[in-house]
Design brief:
The complex is a heterodimer of chains A (144) and B (131). With 144 residues, chain A is α+β, with helices and mostly antiparallel strands. Chain A is 20% helix and 35% strand. Chain A has a six-stranded mixed β-sheet. In chain A, helix 1 packs across helix 2 (79-93). Chain A is elongated, with a radius of gyration of 16 Å. Chain A starts with 9 loop residues before the first helix and ends in a 6-residue tail after the last strand. Chain B has helices at 2-23, 87-92, 103-110, 113-127, and strands at residues 42-48, 51-57, 77-83. In chain B, helix 1 (2-23) packs across helix 3 (103-110) and helix 1 (2-23) packs across helix 4 (113-127). The two termini of chain B are 14 Å apart. The chains are: A alpha+beta (144), B alpha+beta (131).
């Protein structure tokens, strides 16, 4: 049983991914939940951006951890560009081992468990690549 | 034993798809009437030693092997469950519509050691001649 509300893993993971994109020179293009105003553009004017959404994050029934599945959609200006964004996302979180975040969330490991499929958004046909990131994290704040 | 386990896993996958279909939102991308689109797009395929041994779908037809299914494991049991287009965009969202996850949460709720045992045990035990 938890002694405090379960922590949301999305924020810390988003910050990690955003930091990697900034470090790679892409700037701030990672969104949480939905695209930012102006991200949707017609063909020929596509913009790069990445949308993260929590697919689910059930608490473990036996121990105070959670296994979050975070879906990512990497929108590029072309299929190749979308694949490059996907590669940057993989570098940011795949097989990254234990770390403790500022809010006390302990992440045991994050793994890209699915993804790489090229696709097109049905709304405006913008090229994108899907990814699924599994995050195994504490359910409550912990100290080092 | 392998075929019995395959049947058990297939049944578990059917349970996941049936329950996910009951909660799947109708998609505006679908050309079907209300309740006849995404909620009935689900299906399950079973393979043993690389050969298809079972297939089932909510529509009653045999589902096609998914495009993204890279390879069937050459030995052992492989069971694939899921929903066809546009399930991915409903589950993950699009530029204009928010994500409405319906499959992964159902799978996480039902694919547990306890539930898997309750589904597999009767099937496997009866085929092996004991309970």
């Amino acid at each position: 049983m938890l002694t405090a509300p379960m922590l949301d893993p999305m924020g810390p993971v988003l910050v990690e991914i955003r930091s990697e994109f900034i470090a790679q020179g892409y700037g701030d293009l990672v969104r949480g939940g939905e695209p930012a105003p102006g991200d949707e553009q017609p063909a020929g004017s596509y913009r790069r951006f990445v949308v993260l959404t929590v697919i689910d994050s059930p608490p473990d029934p036996n121990v105070p951890i959670q296994r979050a599945a975070i879906g990512a959609r990497c929108y590029g200006t072309s299929p190749h560009d979308a694949a490059l964004l996907y590669g940057t996302l993989v570098k940011a979180v795949h097989m990254v081992r234990a770390r403790l975040k500022a809010n006390g969330l302990g992440i045991y490991q994050s793994i890209v468990v699915g993804g790489g499929e090229a696709d097109f958004d049905p709304a405006n046909q913008q090229p994108l690549v899907h990814a699924t990131v599994q995050v195994i994290a504490t359910a409550q704040a912990v100290t080092s | 034993v392998t075929l019995a386990v395959s049947d058990g896993l297939f049944e578990l996958a059917k349970q996941v798809v049936t329950e996910a279909g009951a909660t799947a939102p109708d998609s505006p991308l679908d050309p079907f009437p209300t309740g006849e689109g995404l909620p009935k797009q689900g299906g399950v395929l079973g393979f043993v030693n690389g050969q298809k041994v079972n297939g089932w779908s909510l529509r009653g037809t045999q589902p096609a092997k998914p495009r993204s299914m890279r390879a069937t494991v050459k030995s052992g049991v492989t069971v694939v469950a899921g929903f066809g287009h546009p399930a991915r965009f409903v589950e993950r969202g699009t530029i204009r519509t928010p994500a409405q996850p319906f499959f992964q949460p159902t799978a996480d709720r039902l694919i547990t050691p306890e539930n898997a045992r309750s589904v597999l045990e009767p099937l496997v035990a009866s085929k092996l001649g004991r309970r």
